[in-house]
Amino acid sequence: MEDLTERRTVVVTGASSGIGLAAAVDLARRGDRVVLVGRDPARLRAAGERVRECCGDQPELFRADFAVLDDVRGLAERLRATYDRIDVLANNAGAIVLQPVTTVDGFELSMQANHLAPFLLTNLLRDRIGRMVVTASGAHRSGVLDPDDLNATLRRYRPMRAYGTSKQANILFTAEAARRWPEVPAYSFHPGVVRTRFGNESRLVAVGMRLLPFRSPERGAETLVWLANQDPSRLVHGGYYADRRLRRPLPKAAHPALAARLWSASAKAVGIDA
């Protein structure tokens, strides 16, 4: 039997396709034991088979729908029962939502799927996590985050504004996690404009993809994989990266007081202690 004691365990959310699957394949090729989290069972199984075919090992698969916070709580329980340590948690799951949708938990869907769900998962796994990498986006420039009203984007809904607000939250969450948990290296990154299933499911985004230069999922995953492997002494704790370089997000995604307010509001929203 192969000795797995020296291998890292890397959990990748949103791993059924796109950047998440590309990152999982790359990490598995490097020798990590990858754990795939996805919403759709068939696509999740296909992703697991892709990793097995290229890397030899069958990865563990965990289904969870981030539009349902009870799914996230169940996912955390199953991960805790299976792994004593998660060396890297890649919070990569995300969605662009074309119409205003309120989840069963009462939140705008992109804010919940892209921010509140990974916020909850990370907090529930905190004592097991060795490092956190968060897929953010340069789209944070369109964010209009108000921690006092996490559903503000439901009014006069605009898909990219809602998406950008959730990505603004990703960057603020990562920076605040770094301040609160200095023992857990935490980084966010912009993957570039990547052709993923976003383009398959959205006519609006598909048109945009044709007008903008785009990257393959493999290229988009490069900074994620790099952040998962780089010596923390060479990185800025809580930093925001793009193309493997430290970048400065817009001020609205870099204000410590706003990040602290977001943390408190998010904790209240998902029902945990701040």
Listing every helix as H and every strand as E from the N terminus to the C terminus, the arrangement reads: EHEHEHEHEHEHHHEEH
Output mean pLDDT: 92
What percent of residues are in strands? 5-15%
Structural class call reads alpha/beta
Distance between the termini: 43 Å
> What general outline do the C-alpha atoms trace?
globular
Question: How much helical structure, as a percent, in the residues?
Answer: 40-55%
Structure, explained:
With 274 residues, the chain is an alpha/beta fold. 44% of the residues lie in helices and 12% in strands. Strands 3-2-1-4-5-6-7-8 form an 8-stranded mixed sheet, sandwiched between helices. It is globular, with a radius of gyration of 17 Å. The model has no long low-confidence stretch (mean pLDDT 92).
Question: Short description, anyone?
Answer:
This protein has helices at residues 18-29, 41-55, 69-82, 109-124, 159-180, 197-201, 203-211, 217-229, 256-270; strands spanning 9-13, 33-38, 60-63, 88-91, 132-135, 186-190, 240-242, 245-247. By secondary structure, it is an alpha/beta fold.
List the helices and strands and how they pair.
Layout: E1 9-13, H1 18-29, E2 33-38, H2 41-55, E3 60-63, H3 69-82, E4 88-91, H4 109-124, E5 132-135, H5 159-180, E6 186-190, H6 197-201, H7 203-211, H8 217-229, E7 240-242, E8 245-247, H9 256-270
Parallel strand pairs: 1-2, 1-4, 2-3, 4-5, 5-6, 6-7
Antiparallel strand pairs: 7-8
Helix pairs in contact: 1-2, 1-8, 3-4, 4-5, 4-9, 5-9
